[in-house]
Amino acid sequence: MEDATTIFIKGMVCDRCKRVLTRSFTDLGLIVKEIHLGSVTLAGTSRLPSLAPIQQVLAENGFELLQDRNSKVVQEIKDLIEVVLKEPEDYEVPVKFSRLLQEKLSMEYNTLSALFSATEGITLEKYIINRRLEKVKEWLVYTDLTLTDIAYLIGFSSVQHLSNQFKELTGFTPSHFREIKLKKHRWTDQEVEL
């Protein structure tokens, strides 16, 4: 049995709208499980390469696909995390993501966290840790920042805390990634000499 997907539609105002969309979705090879003014539950969407055919059908009939509000909020969370990690010195160090997200998105952190987990299948805390550690890897390989500087900028309480989390999640020590940088430079220097 195929999973059903509910989409939200702007512009549905009457039973005629429901009939038009039912016929249009059926012509696309989709099964209309349920249809209400403003929403349609479809089966068969996994066979489509993207939502483009659905958006086209809606546009041809004078309707518009409403993006899921939760997805927008999750994307705003991810974007804000990336902005902070890109330029952490622009924020209060160490960054308190819970407070920052709550202030910027005007929602309680517990609500944001629950919404993120439900949408992404990973807790917000784990996502933030993973993104922070990816940034640590990048800085270890591509900058001359010390591990102490990195720990401070990225918001870890100590170098030891950073090292422990890094080892736990990557299986490697931070010094391993620093060695990659050194090997890269040696390899590049040898290439130049040839």
Can you offer a commentary on this structure?
With 194 residues, this protein is of the alpha+beta class. The protein folds into two domains: 4-66, Alpha-Beta Plaits; 70-186, Homeodomain-like (Arc Repressor Mutant, subunit A, Orthogonal Bundle). Helix content is 62%, strand content 11%. The chain contains nine helices and four strands, in the order βαββαβααααααα. The chain has a four-stranded antiparallel beta sheet. The termini are far apart.
Helix and strand topology:
Blueprint: E1 4-10, H1 15-27, E2 31-36, E3 39-43, H2 52-60, E4 64-66, H3 69-86, H4 97-105, H5 109-120, H6 124-142, H7 147-154, H8 159-170, H9 174-193
Antiparallel strand pairs: 1-3, 1-4, 2-3
Helix pairs in contact: 3-5, 3-6, 6-7, 6-9
The number of distinct β-strands equals 4
Q: What's the CATH H-level homologous superfamily of the largest domain? A: Homeodomain-like
Could you report the average pLDDT, rounded to the nearest whole number?
A: 83
- What ranges have pLDDT less than 50 throughout 5 or more consecutive residues? none
The CATH topology assignment of the largest domain is: Arc Repressor Mutant, subunit A
Radius of gyration: 24 Å
For the biggest sheet, the summary is: 4 strands, antiparallel
Tally of helical runs: 9
Helix content percent band: 55-70%
The termini sit apart by: 61 Å
- Please state roughly what percent of the residues sit in beta strands, choosing from under 5%, 5-15%, 15-25%, 25-35%, 35-45% or over 45%: 5-15%
